[in-house]
Amino acid sequence: MSKLDELLETMRALRAKNGCPWDREQTLDSLKPFLLEEAYELIDAIDSKDIENHKEELGDVLLQLVFQAQIRDEEGLFSFQDVADYINKKMIHRHPHVFKNDKTIETSSDVLNKWDSFKKAEGKKITFFGNIPNSFPALLESLKINIKAAKTGFDWEKIDDIYEKLDEELLEFKSAKTDEERVDELGDILFVIVNLARRHNINPEEALKRSNKKFKNRFELMLELAKEKKLDFSDLSLDEMDKLWDEIKIQIKNSCLQLN
After folding, report:
1. Cα-atom radius of gyration of the chain, to the nearest Å?
2. Which of the listed residues 161, 199, 215, 246 has the most CB atoms within 10 Å of its CB?
3. Structure letter (DSSP) for residue 168
4. Phi, psi of 172, deg, nearest 5
5. Is 101 helix (H, G, I), strand (E, B) or coil?
6. How far apart are CA 60 and CA 148, in angstroms?
7. Residue range 183-190: average pLDDT?
8. Which residues are within 8 A (CB) of 33 and not within 5 positions of it... i.e. 6 or more apart?
9. What digits encode the pLDDT tens for the residues 136-149?
10. What are the distances in angstroms from CA 161 to CA 157, 167, 175, 188, 254?
Protein backbone atom coordinates (compact mmCIF):
# COMPACT_ATOMS: atom_id res chain seq x y z
CA MET A 1 0.00 0.00 0.00
CA SER A 2 1.32 3.43 -0.97
CA LYS A 3 1.70 6.25 1.56
CA LEU A 4 -1.17 8.06 -0.17
CA ASP A 5 -3.41 5.01 0.18
CA GLU A 6 -2.48 4.87 3.87
CA LEU A 7 -3.54 8.52 4.24
CA LEU A 8 -6.86 7.80 2.53
CA GLU A 9 -7.45 4.87 4.90
CA THR A 10 -6.65 7.09 7.89
CA MET A 11 -9.20 9.67 6.75
CA ARG A 12 -11.85 6.98 6.26
CA ALA A 13 -11.20 5.77 9.81
CA LEU A 14 -11.46 9.30 11.23
CA ARG A 15 -14.80 9.81 9.49
CA ALA A 16 -16.15 6.34 10.33
CA LYS A 17 -18.93 5.67 12.87
CA ASN A 18 -16.45 4.95 15.64
CA GLY A 19 -13.96 7.58 14.44
CA CYS A 20 -13.16 11.07 15.72
CA PRO A 21 -16.23 13.13 16.74
CA TRP A 22 -14.65 16.39 15.49
CA ASP A 23 -13.72 14.96 12.09
CA ARG A 24 -17.18 13.41 11.70
CA GLU A 25 -18.83 16.79 12.38
CA GLN A 26 -16.96 18.64 9.65
CA THR A 27 -18.64 19.75 6.43
CA LEU A 28 -17.35 21.31 3.23
CA ASP A 29 -18.37 24.73 4.53
CA SER A 30 -16.70 24.26 7.91
CA LEU A 31 -13.47 23.15 6.22
CA LYS A 32 -13.15 26.21 3.97
CA PRO A 33 -11.36 28.42 6.54
CA PHE A 34 -8.86 25.61 7.26
CA LEU A 35 -8.00 25.26 3.58
CA LEU A 36 -7.26 28.97 3.34
CA GLU A 37 -5.22 28.95 6.55
CA GLU A 38 -3.17 25.95 5.44
CA ALA A 39 -2.53 27.51 2.01
CA TYR A 40 -1.19 30.68 3.64
CA GLU A 41 0.93 28.67 6.07
CA LEU A 42 2.35 26.78 3.10
CA ILE A 43 3.34 30.06 1.47
CA ASP A 44 5.02 31.13 4.74
CA ALA A 45 6.94 27.85 4.77
CA ILE A 46 8.14 28.40 1.20
CA ASP A 47 9.27 31.92 2.07
CA SER A 48 11.09 30.72 5.19
CA LYS A 49 13.22 28.24 3.17
CA ASP A 50 12.62 25.73 5.98
CA ILE A 51 12.55 22.34 4.23
CA GLU A 52 10.96 20.38 7.09
CA ASN A 53 8.30 23.05 7.58
CA HIS A 54 7.63 23.08 3.83
CA LYS A 55 7.10 19.30 3.89
CA GLU A 56 4.79 19.57 6.89
CA GLU A 57 2.66 22.33 5.37
CA LEU A 58 2.36 20.49 2.05
CA GLY A 59 1.01 17.57 4.07
CA ASP A 60 -1.49 19.82 5.85
CA VAL A 61 -2.80 21.10 2.50
CA LEU A 62 -2.98 17.55 1.14
CA LEU A 63 -4.99 16.53 4.20
CA GLN A 64 -7.57 19.20 3.43
CA LEU A 65 -7.96 17.86 -0.13
CA VAL A 66 -8.29 14.28 1.11
CA PHE A 67 -10.80 15.43 3.75
CA GLN A 68 -13.07 17.11 1.18
CA ALA A 69 -12.83 14.19 -1.23
CA GLN A 70 -13.79 11.78 1.57
CA ILE A 71 -16.93 13.80 2.30
CA ARG A 72 -17.91 13.66 -1.37
CA ASP A 73 -17.13 9.92 -1.43
CA GLU A 74 -19.51 9.40 1.50
CA GLU A 75 -22.17 11.27 -0.49
CA GLY A 76 -21.59 8.87 -3.40
CA LEU A 77 -20.48 11.69 -5.73
CA PHE A 78 -16.76 11.09 -6.32
CA SER A 79 -13.62 9.78 -4.62
CA PHE A 80 -10.08 11.09 -4.23
CA GLN A 81 -9.06 8.63 -6.96
CA ASP A 82 -11.61 10.29 -9.28
CA VAL A 83 -10.04 13.68 -8.49
CA ALA A 84 -6.54 12.39 -9.30
CA ASP A 85 -7.76 10.74 -12.50
CA TYR A 86 -9.58 13.92 -13.59
CA ILE A 87 -6.62 16.26 -13.11
CA ASN A 88 -4.21 13.81 -14.72
CA LYS A 89 -6.36 13.50 -17.84
CA LYS A 90 -6.83 17.29 -17.97
CA MET A 91 -3.09 17.93 -17.78
CA ILE A 92 -2.41 15.44 -20.56
CA HIS A 93 -5.16 16.97 -22.73
CA ARG A 94 -3.93 20.53 -22.17
CA HIS A 95 -0.28 19.70 -22.92
CA PRO A 96 -0.33 18.10 -26.38
CA HIS A 97 3.16 19.54 -27.00
CA VAL A 98 4.42 17.20 -24.27
CA PHE A 99 2.26 14.10 -24.70
CA LYS A 100 1.24 14.23 -28.40
CA ASN A 101 4.26 15.88 -29.98
CA ASP A 102 2.25 18.97 -31.05
CA LYS A 103 4.82 21.27 -32.70
CA THR A 104 2.45 24.28 -32.83
CA ILE A 105 3.11 24.98 -29.14
CA GLU A 106 6.72 25.91 -28.48
CA THR A 107 6.81 28.84 -26.03
CA SER A 108 5.14 29.78 -22.73
CA SER A 109 3.09 32.37 -24.64
CA ASP A 110 1.84 29.65 -26.99
CA VAL A 111 0.72 27.60 -23.99
CA LEU A 112 -1.19 30.52 -22.46
CA ASN A 113 -2.80 31.42 -25.79
CA LYS A 114 -4.03 27.85 -26.20
CA TRP A 115 -5.34 27.56 -22.64
CA ASP A 116 -8.69 29.27 -23.29
CA SER A 117 -9.25 27.26 -26.44
CA PHE A 118 -8.76 24.07 -24.43
CA LYS A 119 -11.31 25.28 -21.86
CA LYS A 120 -13.83 26.07 -24.59
CA ALA A 121 -13.32 22.63 -26.13
CA GLU A 122 -14.02 21.13 -22.70
CA GLY A 123 -17.34 23.00 -22.63
CA LYS A 124 -16.36 25.53 -19.98
CA LYS A 125 -18.09 28.91 -20.05
CA ILE A 126 -15.46 31.63 -20.34
CA THR A 127 -16.10 35.27 -19.44
CA PHE A 128 -13.52 38.05 -19.68
CA PHE A 129 -12.67 37.95 -15.97
CA GLY A 130 -13.82 34.35 -15.51
CA ASN A 131 -10.37 33.01 -14.65
CA ILE A 132 -10.06 35.29 -11.61
CA PRO A 133 -11.56 33.53 -8.55
CA ASN A 134 -14.03 35.57 -6.50
CA SER A 135 -12.43 34.13 -3.36
CA PHE A 136 -9.05 35.74 -4.09
CA PRO A 137 -7.81 38.24 -1.49
CA ALA A 138 -9.21 41.62 -2.56
CA LEU A 139 -5.86 43.26 -3.39
CA LEU A 140 -4.73 40.30 -5.48
CA GLU A 141 -8.10 40.10 -7.23
CA SER A 142 -7.91 43.82 -8.02
CA LEU A 143 -4.40 43.45 -9.42
CA LYS A 144 -5.47 40.57 -11.69
CA ILE A 145 -8.51 42.56 -12.88
CA ASN A 146 -6.40 45.62 -13.64
CA ILE A 147 -3.71 43.67 -15.48
CA LYS A 148 -6.29 41.97 -17.68
CA ALA A 149 -8.19 45.19 -18.42
CA ALA A 150 -4.96 47.08 -19.19
CA LYS A 151 -4.00 44.48 -21.82
CA THR A 152 -6.99 45.64 -23.90
CA GLY A 153 -5.63 49.21 -23.86
CA PHE A 154 -8.06 50.39 -21.17
CA ASP A 155 -5.45 52.12 -19.05
CA TRP A 156 -4.21 55.56 -18.01
CA GLU A 157 -1.86 57.09 -20.56
CA LYS A 158 0.51 58.57 -17.95
CA ILE A 159 1.28 57.55 -14.40
CA ASP A 160 0.62 61.16 -13.32
CA ASP A 161 -3.01 60.58 -14.34
CA ILE A 162 -3.22 57.90 -11.66
CA TYR A 163 -1.88 60.27 -9.01
CA GLU A 164 -4.52 62.82 -10.04
CA LYS A 165 -7.22 60.18 -9.81
CA LEU A 166 -5.99 59.18 -6.35
CA ASP A 167 -6.22 62.81 -5.17
CA GLU A 168 -9.75 62.97 -6.59
CA GLU A 169 -10.82 59.79 -4.80
CA LEU A 170 -9.32 60.99 -1.49
CA LEU A 171 -11.37 64.19 -1.73
CA GLU A 172 -14.51 62.18 -2.47
CA PHE A 173 -13.83 60.02 0.58
CA LYS A 174 -13.43 63.11 2.78
CA SER A 175 -16.73 64.51 1.53
CA ALA A 176 -18.68 61.24 1.95
CA LYS A 177 -21.72 61.67 4.21
CA THR A 178 -22.76 58.11 5.04
CA ASP A 179 -21.01 54.88 6.03
CA GLU A 180 -22.09 53.29 2.74
CA GLU A 181 -20.58 56.16 0.75
CA ARG A 182 -17.34 55.91 2.74
CA VAL A 183 -17.11 52.17 2.03
CA ASP A 184 -17.58 52.81 -1.70
CA GLU A 185 -15.06 55.65 -1.80
CA LEU A 186 -12.46 53.75 0.22
CA GLY A 187 -12.83 50.85 -2.22
CA ASP A 188 -12.22 53.26 -5.09
CA ILE A 189 -9.09 54.59 -3.36
CA LEU A 190 -7.71 51.07 -2.94
CA PHE A 191 -8.55 50.23 -6.55
CA VAL A 192 -6.58 53.25 -7.77
CA ILE A 193 -3.66 52.37 -5.47
CA VAL A 194 -3.58 48.89 -7.00
CA ASN A 195 -3.33 50.50 -10.44
CA LEU A 196 -0.47 52.64 -9.15
CA ALA A 197 1.27 49.53 -7.84
CA ARG A 198 0.79 47.75 -11.17
CA ARG A 199 2.37 50.59 -13.11
CA HIS A 200 5.39 50.44 -10.78
CA ASN A 201 5.56 46.63 -11.14
CA ILE A 202 4.74 46.19 -7.45
CA ASN A 203 2.49 43.42 -6.16
CA PRO A 204 0.21 45.30 -3.70
CA GLU A 205 -0.52 42.12 -1.74
CA GLU A 206 3.21 41.57 -1.12
CA ALA A 207 3.76 45.26 -0.37
CA LEU A 208 1.03 45.29 2.28
CA LYS A 209 2.30 42.01 3.72
CA ARG A 210 5.74 43.60 4.07
CA SER A 211 4.28 46.64 5.83
CA ASN A 212 2.24 44.39 8.13
CA LYS A 213 5.36 42.43 9.07
CA LYS A 214 7.36 45.61 9.59
CA PHE A 215 4.68 47.09 11.84
CA LYS A 216 4.35 43.89 13.91
CA ASN A 217 8.11 43.68 14.43
CA ARG A 218 8.43 47.34 15.41
CA PHE A 219 5.42 47.24 17.71
CA GLU A 220 6.71 44.16 19.54
CA LEU A 221 10.14 45.80 19.90
CA MET A 222 8.41 48.89 21.27
CA LEU A 223 6.61 46.76 23.88
CA GLU A 224 9.95 45.18 24.85
CA LEU A 225 11.56 48.61 25.13
CA ALA A 226 8.76 49.82 27.40
CA LYS A 227 9.27 46.73 29.57
CA GLU A 228 13.04 47.41 29.76
CA LYS A 229 12.28 50.95 30.89
CA LYS A 230 9.85 49.54 33.48
CA LEU A 231 6.93 51.38 31.87
CA ASP A 232 3.33 50.17 31.81
CA PHE A 233 2.57 50.52 28.11
CA SER A 234 -1.19 50.75 28.60
CA ASP A 235 -0.72 53.76 30.88
CA LEU A 236 1.42 55.74 28.41
CA SER A 237 0.07 58.72 26.52
CA LEU A 238 0.11 58.71 22.73
CA ASP A 239 3.05 61.15 22.75
CA GLU A 240 5.01 58.82 25.03
CA MET A 241 4.22 55.87 22.76
CA ASP A 242 5.37 57.89 19.74
CA LYS A 243 8.69 58.60 21.46
CA LEU A 244 9.24 54.86 22.01
CA TRP A 245 8.26 54.20 18.39
CA ASP A 246 10.81 56.75 17.15
CA GLU A 247 13.47 55.26 19.43
CA ILE A 248 12.84 51.81 17.94
CA LYS A 249 13.06 53.22 14.39
CA ILE A 250 16.47 54.72 15.24
CA GLN A 251 17.66 51.42 16.72
CA ILE A 252 16.58 49.51 13.61
CA LYS A 253 18.22 52.07 11.32
CA ASN A 254 21.50 51.91 13.26
CA SER A 255 21.51 48.11 13.26
CA CYS A 256 20.98 48.11 9.49
CA LEU A 257 23.86 50.55 9.05
CA GLN A 258 26.11 48.31 11.15
CA LEU A 259 25.17 45.27 9.06
CA ASN A 260 26.03 47.18 5.90
Report:
1. 25
2. 199
3. H
4. -65, -35
5. coil
6. 33
7. 97
8. none
9. 889 989 999 999 99
10. 7, 10, 21, 15, 38
* pTM attached to this predicted model: 0.63
pLDDT at position 226 over 50? yes
DSSP label at residue 3 = H
Cβ–Cβ under 8 Å, residues 233 and 224: no
**197 near 204, Cβ under 8 Å?**
yes
Distance CA 214, CA 196 (A): 21
CB 189 within 8 A of CB 195: no
Rounded to 5 degrees, φ, ψ at 224 are -65, -40
What confidence category does residue 215 fall into, taking pLDDT thresholds of 50, 70 and 90? very high
Domains of the chain: 3-91 (1.10.287.1080), 94-121 (no CATH), 138-202 (1.10.287.1080), 205-259 (no CATH)
Encode pLDDT of 82-119 as tens digits: 999 999 998 888 888 888 877 777 777 777 767 667 76
- Vertex 238 angle, CA 237 and 242, to 5°: 120
pLDDT at 167: 97
